[in-house]
Design goal:
With about 350 residues, the chain is mainly alpha-helical. The chain is built from 14 helices and no strands. The two termini are about 45 Å apart. This is Membrane protein.
Length: about 350
């Protein structure tokens, strides 16, 4: 049943991606896209890939800082980087599965409990969400006349079209909080009885490790490194998207402010629950560039170049990271077997 649910979620996500891609490209002349591709300056694309890799190294470093207070002080940035890239690689196949995958990889390489890793990743993602929302506020302030109506329109249109489901959402929300309060009551009042159950003990241990991961930010040993690595991550995110402007004559004249608007709106597209933001990213970036007078074909072309560049980087570096990790795990397993034989003899 669990595998069936995963397959259904995957098919739904894939269907949404394909539907969005069709919607974005249905009015595009592909011969025009091909003609624009001949003018690409690939050195800028390679620079964008390199900047993305720097951001992922900074993320691996920051993740290490979060795990150190939890007792994992001997993590190497290299092994953590491999786990991060394998996670991104997994996200291209199953949306959001990469977060669990990278925690599983670090469990195999450094014995970091998956629940602890997931807790730290949740804390990390909450920080990323705060940074994204701060970027949205900044770009709306700078480009209010262009973006405010567009962003509000996205949500108001959805509300107008789906207002019939509001009562259902209220019921579901009420049911969720009822379950939460019931769970808290049982845990506080019936804890002794519940602890006689092995399943409850496993769930309780998992929640404790998850909470430890979430609270890891409070006990950081190197707060300066954590802050600076966060800045590096987001500066690299912006820069790797902005330098793509110089890869083609149709966007090389665009300003930093337009680059910031495109970066933030693209971030919202990548946050969509579809494989690698496919479709959602193309649509929202092309629509954003249209606000600045770019025609549909040019906007879709830029979005495609940007998204394809980063997807190729993840496929290449993520695939290599997976291969290196598998080799490392195999050697580690062989070493452990050798030690067992020696100790036995």
């Amino acid at each position: 049943m669990k595998h069936l649910t995963t397959v259904i979620k995957y098919l739904i996500s894939l269907s949404i991606s394909l539907g969005l891609l069709y919607y974005v490209f249905k009015d595009i002349d592909f011969s025009e896209l091909s003609s624009r591709a001949t003018d690409l300056r690939y050195s800028w694309l390679l620079l964008s890939m390199a900047l993305a890799i720097v951001s992922h190294i900074a993320r691996a470093y920051r993740w290490n800082l979060m795990l150190k207070p939890l007792g994992h002080k001997n993590l190497s940035v290299f092994r953590t980087f491999l786990a991060v890239m394998v996670g991104y690689f997994g996200n291209l196949i199953i949306p959001r599965a990469g977060e669990v995958i990278r925690c599983g990889m670090l469990k195999r390489s450094d014995q970091v409990p998956v629940s602890t890793g997931v807790g730290s990743v949740v804390a990390e993602r909450l920080l990323d969400l705060i940074m994204l929302l701060a970027s949205v506020v900044l770009v709306i302030f700078l480009e209010f006349d262009k973006l405010y109506g567009f962003i509000i329109g996205l949500f108001s249109n959805k509300y107008d079209q789906h207002s019939a489901i509001v009562p259902i959402l209220l019921i579901l929300t009420g049911g969720f909080f009822t379950m939460v309060f019931l769970g808290i009551y049982l845990w506080k009042k019936q804890r002794t009885w519940l602890r006689k159950n092995a399943l409850f003990l496993r769930v309780e241990a998992f929640i404790e490790q998850l909470s430890a991961g979430l609270m890891s930010i409070q006990s950081l040993e190197n707060k300066t490194g954590f802050f600076l690595s966060t800045i590096v991550i987001w500066v690299m995110y912006f820069t790797m998207s902005y330098v793509i402007f110089f890869s083609t004559p149709i966007t090389e004249h665009l300003t930093l402010r337009i680059g910031l608007a495109m970066f933030v709106m693209g971030g919202l597209g990548m946050a969509a629950p579809v494989q690698g933001g496919i479709g959602a990213y193309h649509w929202i970036v092309s629509q954003t560039l249209a606000l600045y007078g770019m025609n549909l074909t040019d906007g879709v072309f830029f979005a495609t170049v940007m998204h394809t560049t980063q997807t190729l980087m993840i496929l290449i570096v993520g695939g290599l990271s997976l291969a290196v990790s598998l080799i490392m795990f195999q050697k580690k397993g062989e070493a452990s077997s050798g030690e067992s034989i020696i100790s036995t003899s």
